[in-house]
Write a structure and sequence with these properties.
The chain is an all-alpha fold. It has helices spanning 19-22, 40-51, 59-90, 107-114, 118-158, 169-182, 192-220, 238-256, 262-266, 276-306, 324-360, 365-368, 380-399, 403-430, 438-470, and strands at 94-95, 102-103, 371-373, 376-378. The strands form 2 sheets. The protein has a two-stranded antiparallel sheet. α14 (403-430) packs antiparallel against α15. The longest helix is centred in the first third of the chain and has 41 residues, at 118-158. The radius of gyration is 23 Å and the shape is globular.
């Protein structure tokens, strides 16, 4: 196709079919890519889908470790830090002018433009390892919820004395099969509807968890729990108390993590005015505020209902047995949500590999030839590579079926570099903040403080994983 108004040549596959009628420029953005259509609402749906994930279900357990004072305080702290650093990161979507500067399509592109060197590789390793970890964590969580549906029915029929044991492996395989299908949707722009369905589902199961917590608290005749959290004594040593408190930090960090896909979400927002950074900041504010209200309610009511006995997964740890059908609705909603959330987190990995393959072999029919069927775009590369990725995460999930421990470790390891360090460093470089200035000192203090929290939380989670491995048999889930 001919270039117009300085817009670069674009492969025919990238341009809408109707472009031939009205001239390409109307259908293309300033970078020659198909016009983006995202808004505050679609960006918020993507963020809520990514954030209000299965992490919400471990918050009652996390607050139980920390108590009524530290638990909510830590949650508010993470909410503020996540929101503030997300606004710094949103400023790095364009290099130079916030409305017309060069776009960075991925987190790694932003790091490459602003920092360069070895930091790009470090960012890539951490980001993609985290995304793979999230995919594994979500596979585990979905199987736990599917198994909980079966167990709720069994308890209702046979009574609570029946152990109602079953393997989670068939459920993981089922979840993997569904993901192979949805993985053939080519990119973020095409999964907006999946994000909206997933966001609705997250509100559904969070609301059910909250309602059951309130009902349980009323039936208990008051709030359980203490100011300092789980007390040392029967079954909990002072060392365990420390490790568990640190793991609770990791769980809360995981519950808020979405920085690793923020730039990719921002790349779906329509061109200025207003600038993508302003729209993204507004979407982040809306999403983090909504999320925090839900987290506070679910975490605190779960702790109020069960006190020290709060399970590490509120809806599947069987703190509640009845009404069993309501638990089933909640757990089905979790599974539907996780189907969408898995896609939101995996799209950046899929896009990264496919971009590298296209650049290396631009003329290969294996990569470029596509068959469009509704929202799906089938190519041999997409079919083989994405299916292999889903199979790998499913097998690893079957090998490591302990949800709480994995969640804490993921949150701890990725929190500092992706949520704090890179956004702070890129913002300082982009805005040319003078070294030693008040703003520079404040941002570096924030970064170092979060590094210390990350290391402590990782240590707590590793100790917990080691404990779990002592009694663990592979594929026994």
């Amino acid at each position: 196709m001919a270039a117009h108004n300085g817009i670069k040549h674009v492969a025919p596959m990238e341009v809408s079919v109707e472009a031939g009628n009205a001239g390409e420029a109307e259908w293309l953005d300033d970078d020659g890519r198909p016009r983006r259509t995202g808004t505050v609402w679609t960006a918020s749906a993507h963020i809520i889908t990514a954030v209000i994930g299965s992490g919400v279900l471990s918050l009652a357990w996390a607050i139980a470790q920390l108590g009524w004072v530290a638990g909510p305080a830590v949650m508010l702290l993470f909410a503020f830090v996540t929101y503030y650093t997300a606004t710094l990161l949103a400023e790095c979507y364009r290099t130079g002018d916030p409305a017309t500067g060069k776009r960075n399509y991925t987190y790694m592109d932003a790091v490459r433009s602003n920092l360069g060197g070895a930091k790009v590789a470090f960012c890539g390793v951490i980001q993609y390892a985290n995304l793979v970890g999230v995919a594994i964590g979500y596979t585990i969580a979905s199987s736990i919820s599917m198994r909980a549906v079966r167990r709720a029915g069994c308890f209702h029929t046979n009574g609570h004395a029946d152990p109602c044991k079953s393997s989670s492996n068939p459920y993981m395989l089922l979840f993997g099969a569904v993901q192979i299908l949805f993985s053939q949707i080519p990119d973020f722009d095409q999964i907006w509807w999946l994000s909206i369905v997933a966001a609705v589902m997250s509100f559904t199961y969070s609301s059910i968890g909250l309602s059951l917590g309130i009902a349980q608290t009323i039936s208990n005749g008051g709030f359980k729990g203490s100011l300092a959290g789980i007390s040392i004594g029967a079954g909990v040593t002072s060392t365990q108390k420390i490790w568990r408190s640190l793991q609770a930090f990791g769980d809360i960090a995981f519950a808020y993590s979405f920085s690793n896909i923020l730039i990719e979400i921002q790349d779906t927002i329509k061109a200025p005015p207003p600038s993508e950074a302003k729209v993204m900041t507004k979407a982040t504010r809306l999403s983090v505020a909504t999320t925090t209200i839900f987290y506070m309610l679910c975490g605190c009511m779960g702790y109020a209902a069960f006190g020290d006995e709060a399970p590490d997964n509120l809806l599947t740890g069987f703190g509640f047995f009845e009404p069993f059908w309501l638990l089933d609705v909640a757990n089905v909603a979790i599974v539907v949500h996780l189907v969408g959330a898995y896609q939101v987190f995996c799209q950046p990995i899929f896009a990264f590999v496919e971009r590298r393959a296209s650049a290396a072999w631009p003329d290969s029919a294996f990569i470029t030839r596509e068959l469009r069927v509704g929202p799906f775009a089938l190519s041999v590369l997409r079919l083989t590579w994405r299916s292999a990725f889903v199979c790998l995460t499913t097998v690893v999930a079957m090998l490591l079926p302990f949800f709480g421990n994995v969640v804490g470790l993921l949150g701890a390891v990725s929190f500092w570099p992706l949520t704090v360090y890179f956004p702070v460093e890129m913002y300082l470089r982009q805005r040319k903040v003078p070294r030693g200035s008040t703003q520079w000192i404040c941002l570096q203090t924030l970064s170092v403080s979060c590094l210390i929290i990350s290391i402590a939380a990782a240590a707590g989670s590793i100790a917990d994983v080691i404990d779990a491995l002592k009694v663990y048999r592979p594929f026994s889930g």
